[in-house]
Amino acid sequence: MTGLYTLFLKEVLRFFKVSLQTILSPLVTTLLYLLIFSHVLEAHVHVYPGVSYTAFLVPGLVMMAMLQNAFANSSSSLIQSKMTGNIVFILLPPFAYWEFYAAYVAASVVRGLVVGLGVGVGGLWFADLPLAHPFWLLAFAVLGCAVLGAAGILASLWADDYDKMAAVQNFIIVPLTFLSGVFYSIHSLPPFWQAVSRYNPFFYLIDGFRYGFFGVSDVSPAEGLLIVAVCYLALSLATLQLLRSGYKLRK
Questions:
Q1: 125 part of a folded domain
Q2: For the chain, what is the domain count?
Q3: Does 97 map to a domain?
């Protein structure tokens, strides 16, 4: 396990070394979303009974920040190593492919949780948040970051350059997070769009994470956790298979 721990520590130190970009920047951006949307829509949008719109918004923004930063951590690290050529220094040591995978995903989870914690603490200045079900909150937070960490590895293995990597971020990850119920309840949508939203795995992460705070959700948290776990298993199997084959790494 020494190799796994060393690679994990290297990845954690990498994003902490540039914390202004990797932690503070997304924290400020997310809190600006909270400031603007809560100010504009607080009196006009009603969601769960007894829950203000600002309080409703905070968990969604926390999860959105965690997902985007977990994806950015693994994807940016691996694509930079590929483009600069220093990936060879990771391939030369006798790492097992599953150690490679576990280290990158674990580091992504750490970054996602650190950013999420910062946004959550900042959100307390805007609204008081109950903590109805801490287990569900932690389960969706960790699993959500792991899903996006694995997706980041998969995307960076596929991408040949920064342009393709940015396309995945801008045209897949960002739209899926914004359209997952961060700013609204899906029950406010027409029936057709409610049905479409249920095919977005990010919706179950947002909804389940919000259930951890309020004990209220649009779908059963157990159902949501099962769907997310299946997505994580599928992504992990695909990523591990590509790492095992050395896809676009051993050139």
A1: yes
A2: 1
A3: yes
- On whether residue 60 sits in a domain, the answer given is yes
Question: What is the spatial distance between Cα 82 and Cα 154, in angstroms, rounded to a whole number?
Answer: 13
For residue 194, the one-letter residue type is Q
Q: Are 225 and 143 in contact (CB under 8 A)?
A: yes
pTM: 0.93
> Is residue 146 situated within a structural domain?
yes
Domain ranges, residue 73:
2-13+53-245
Q: Residue 108 corresponds to which tokens in the numbers above?
A: 């992504």
Output the six-digit token pair for 156. 């960076």
pLDDT tens, N- to C-terminus, the chain (251 residues) = 788 999 999 999 999 999 999 999 999 999 999 998 888 777 777 777 788 889 999 999 999 999 999 999 999 999 999 998 888 888 888 889 999 999 999 999 999 999 999 999 999 998 888 999 999 999 999 999 999 999 999 999 999 889 999 999 999 999 999 889 898 888 888 888 888 999 999 999 999 999 999 998 889 999 999 999 999 999 999 999 999 998 988 75
